[in-house]
Design brief:
The protein is α+β, with helices and mostly antiparallel strands. It has two domains: 158 residues, NADH Oxidase (3-Layer(aba) Sandwich); 76 residues, no CATH class. Helix content is 43%, strand content 17%. The protein contains eleven helices and eight strands. The strands form three sheets. The protein has a four-stranded antiparallel β-sheet with strand order 4-5-7-6, sandwiched between helices. A two-stranded antiparallel sheet has the order 1-2. Strand 1 and strand 2 form a beta hairpin. The longest helix is centred in the middle third of the chain and has 24 residues. The chain starts with a strand and ends in a 6-residue tail after the last helix. The relative contact order is 0.15.
Length: 260
């Protein structure tokens, strides 16, 4: 571990380690080399990721490893015609999985028919922790990819394609492969506006949005992408001013996640 010193302030601006540097350099990769990704590598990545924290040791997650081209093609369509889902060497379906809990309760004369919001959240968070751990483990080996939230466009159709039983749903997908092209890293919101000490500082929001709009607009224009001056806030408004995935709650309920 080493410490980088900020010459302006004289304080330790950052601690450096292999893991920290991997995260600081992370980008979403959508183009992959033709080199195969071995089962041994994927098994090593997933084995490490299953050591992620899990609430009350319930381990409410599972992963479907997809290599079959027909399956990837179907998932590509269901996720909004994302072509990188079709071309990725490996697609990981990161799932919230309550079947283990259901089996445990059944052995003691109980069931999960009255499962509530807490159980749905816990299993979703468990799956998310595993997914990010898998991404980081893969990155440490030189694999890159991106997360695919589009699997929630139609959770029941995705479950059918993946053969998921009741009490299992795909929280998000992950493309993984050896990168053929690495994009320029997109800036994040200013650190000082994202971190609050002791209590939340509500005065930061407008300055944070103004600064990020400008920085993201500069980033997109430098790479030849057209955007507005209010780059981020315009994009967020265009995408989220109307409700999205309005069938998600009913679809999840049909799959055994009530979220009441």
């Amino acid at each position: 571990m080493s410490v980088a010193i900020d010459s302006a302030s004289g304080k330790g601006a950052s601690l450096e380690s292999e893991t920290i540097n991997h995260l600081h350099n992370r980008v979403s990769v959508r183009k992959y080399a033709s080199d195969p990704v071995s089962t041994e590598i994927i098994d090593a990545v997933l084995s490490a990721s299953f050591r992620a924290p899990t609430s009350s040791n319930i381990q409410a997650y599972s992963v479907v490893v997809v290599r079959d081209q027909d399956t990837k093609d179907k998932l590509s369509v269901l996720t909004g015609n994302q072509k990188h889902v079709a071309i990725t060497p490996v697609f990981l379906a990161i799932c919230a999985d309550l079947t283990g809990m259901e089996g445990a309760l059944a052995r003691h004369g109980h069931d999960m028919e009255d499962n509530n919001l807490e159980i749905g959240l816990v299993s979703t968070i468990d799956a998310s922790l595993v997914g990010m751990s898998a991404y980081l483990a893969a990155d440490s080996l030189g694999l890159h990819g991106l997360m695919i939230g589009g699997v929630r466009n139609d959770v029941k159709a995705v479950a059918k394609v993946l053969g998921l039983p009741r009490r299992v749903y795909c929280v998000f997908g992950m493309c993984l492969g050896w990168p053929a092209e690495t994009p320029q890293q997109k800036p994040r919101m200013p650190f000082e506006n994202m971190v609050h000490h002791e209590k939340y500082d509500t005065t930061k929001r407008d300055a944070q949005l103004d600064a990020y709009d400008r920085e993201l607009a500069d980033h997109y224009r430098s790479s030849g992408k057209d955007t507005t001056d209010a780059s981020w806030t315009d994009d967020i408004d265009n995408k989220f001013s109307e409700p999205r995935r309005e069938n998600l709650r009913s679809g999840l309920k049909d799959l055994g996640f009530d979220f009441r």
